Amino acid sequence: MLQIISALVPIFALLMIGFLARRHGFPGEGFWAPAERFTYYLLFPALLVNSLSQASLSGGESVRIVLAVLVLLAIVSGICVLLKKRLEVEFATYTSFYQGSMRFNTFVALATTSALLSSAGLVVAAIIAAVMIPVLNILCVLVFSSEKGIGSNLLPTLKALVTNPLILACFAGVLVNQLGGLPSTISATLGLLGQMALPLGLLSVGAALNLNALRSSGRVLYVSSAIKLLLFPVIAWGVAYGFQLSELASQVLIIFAAMPTATSAYILARQLGGDAPLMAAIITAQTLFAMVTLPLVLSFVG
């Protein structure tokens, strides 16, 4: 427990530094948007491509990881669908609930994996991310598209989906892996860029926290947070056990499952007519809740 907390403290410290720095105007409001774009479009793709290019994608373990991820997402997605009627909420509210219950923060997931499991964990994390990122984006778009009247916004969203830099990086990394890997100089360059991704990504996540959004929160926020931060990792533990994943793969899968929802969920909610204020509240609340739930879950489940 103490070892996990010690590893997670620097991660949450960077989140808080980012939050406090932006609230106090340092280094300036004009810094954060370009920093987030730089991380999202260059640094994290470099990290994913480099990790996937070195991963062992052949053999039973990789296949079981992919199947485990797909089954995990199907189970939790099914739970969200079953809860739709019981929540008795409008469709826009439900879409934010769904995203809050399903999506994960890639920045925090990779940083946590790196802190706890070093480079070996990052390789497995890249495989899991290569499956989770495109599948979750598709699932969320399907949930939005199930409601009539968003056709005018759906085409631009689908275009954004197929040009998503993280999704493209996942496919590129797998392709390079199958072609024999990267030259050492390119791999070293991407490695240096990847090292920048984790701290700058965490600072950007912290800077994006919006405490004012919590004022509009309700029970949907707490239900989605309970599913995402507590139920999701427990189900991940059961799925990992059922597929007989290695200890390392099981730990990484549980780490991803225990992550707070993605900050990019707010953009999708705004583009497709979801409940954007609720989504902002869920993102902020889950990121703060995770400071307590993450070490507990990883200690008792992971």
From TrEMBL:
Main location: membrane
GO biological process, one term: transmembrane transport
Gene Ontology CC terms, in alphabetical order: plasma membrane
Membrane topology reported for the UniProt record: Multi-pass membrane protein
Cell compartment(s), UniProt: Cell membrane
Keyword entries, A-Z: Cell membrane, Membrane, Transmembrane, Transmembrane helix, Transport
Family membership: Belongs to the auxin efflux carrier (TC 2.A.69) family.
UniProt protein name: Auxin efflux carrier
